[in-house]
Design a protein that fits this description.
heterodimer; A: 346 residues; mainly alpha; 16 helices; 2 strands; 78% helix; globular; B: 292 residues; two-stranded antiparallel sheet; two-stranded antiparallel ribbon; cell membrane (chain A); membrane (chain A)
Chain lengths: 346, 292
Amino acid sequence: MIRRFTRVPLVRHLLLALVGLAAVVVVLESTSPFRNAQLANVAYLGIAAGGLTVLTGLNGQLSLGHGAFMAIGAYTTALLLQDADPALPLVGVLAVATVVALVCGVVVGVPAARLHGPYIAGATLALAIAIPSTALFFDDLGGEQGLNVLVPDLPTWILDAAYFVTGNEMDRTRSIAYIGWVCLIVTYVLLANLQRSRVGRTWRAVRDDDVAAEIAGIHLGRARVLAFVVSAGCAGLAGSVMAMAVRITAPSGFTLNLSLLLLSAVVLGGLGSLAGALIGSALLTFLPQVVTDVGVDAGLTDVQAAQLSPLVYGLVTMAVILLAPAGLVGSLRGLLQRRRLASAGN
Amino acid sequence: MQQFVNTALGGITLGAVYAAFALALNLIWRSTRIVNFAQAPMAMITTYVALVLIDEGYSYWVGFAVALLSGLVLGAVVERVVIRPVEGKPDINAIILTLGLFVVLHSAAAIVFGSRFQSFPAPFGLRGIEVGGTSIALTPFGVFTVVAVATVMVLLVLLFRYTDLGLKMRASAFGPEVARLLGVRVGRMLTLGWALAALVGSLSGLLIAGGSLVHPAYMDSVVVYGFVAAVLGGLDSPVGSVVGGVLLGLSLSFVSGYVGSELVPLSALAILMVVLLLRPGGLFSHVAERRV
């Protein structure tokens, strides 16, 4: 009976979400503020990477411009949170940032949907470079210095409820980490359902054989634009969380490296896998510190050691494509399936 | 009037550099059907090689020649080691690989050569040429830039159009199986294509660096502009690359001179989008039938 119930994807995803939420509470309550800040970083990278993995893995479109959509979400958030007493509640701010990024996703996605392979890569690359530079042009966006983000306090009833459950006072860093992870869980449940729905199936059909998909009555352009827009919306939400976590929104936060970092996270975890996107984001958040420490111990200067982490993640990305194109999650899944087949054969 | 002329002249010099870069992308596209996003950092590395030699006290031209040669070697090595394993796989793999290489070369250069800005010499004067008592925005080095790029373009057209080697390279790109059956050493042709492209890319790196500052990211914006120039001309035609480069250089120079330099990248994006919507194959493409 219970088994039949958990076969329904929606029920399964919601159960997983609840388990995830419980795990988030335990982890955030038992770690230091510094780790909380790092975990908030994992959350916003994970949200953006989740959107990107759906676009690239399920629909086969490569975007190097997701850092630009994060910038759009972050600047929207910064503009809304200029005063200590903002007009919108936090949920509203997150929603507006997502919607603005969605709209920009339509503007870019409609022409991009007609492009293939290297053309779409080049166009989105141009987007990644253009958006932060354009922010410098408008005086209202704070120029090189960027904008400060004033995150308001959470409503008291949430703080009281949190105190009732955990017995700890919630400080600002931890509350932002919570915001990030709740956004991540909501996003992933929506994306996971989308993957298992009719929409997800049409995306996969378009990726695997566009001619066959069109003959089967799928409108190619519409499917591609929708995938692009959903993915841009995720990046906008991620940018919104990022603005709150970093508390400053400046062009220097949205370099081409951010877009390439997201792509690495997605490739590392495995294209098309949400779990993979999250694992990739976590690895790329915690790796720089480890690698930099190793570099300093090996006698490099601080400046040189800081360059080691991009060197490592670049090399790892290349190695994954050359040796295990399915990424971490995909390779593991393949391994398990082979073992299951072998044991079934005996 | 004077500002207009100077903006146009500056745009042509700039366009020549983009054109060189677009030529390099175009060469790789013609020989392997891959767009090499790591073209810029590769050129950055070879420029640093030249800079190290010049700082050691060798003449500019020794550095220039060695940089071009190291570009040739680097291109061949990258093709054999990195690109060969993904031959015939989905093109997304090759794109991600070249992007990974982009990040790797960047950080490697910062570790080996340092991240600080270093000045790079120029073989010719950087003062504007005097015309009737006023100096215009065309420098002797600018003239050298334009001439060098035009020469490379002519050589490439000759290579692809009038030599056996060029024909073999084109055949390897379009029908590797058939070419192999006809006795073409396809693998060698692919390596040669990458090597030549990296050489042309190195040239554009040297031309951009001449008389200005070099640091690990100095070529980054050129990745985008070179790509836009290549697409403007259609990725298949060397002449198109040069025309696309000059057109783009002029447009961006006017945007920068009359509107604001912050909007240059956005204008490049707008130009790219408009061209791709109107003529997906570029301005100089043969119209090819696409099924969907």
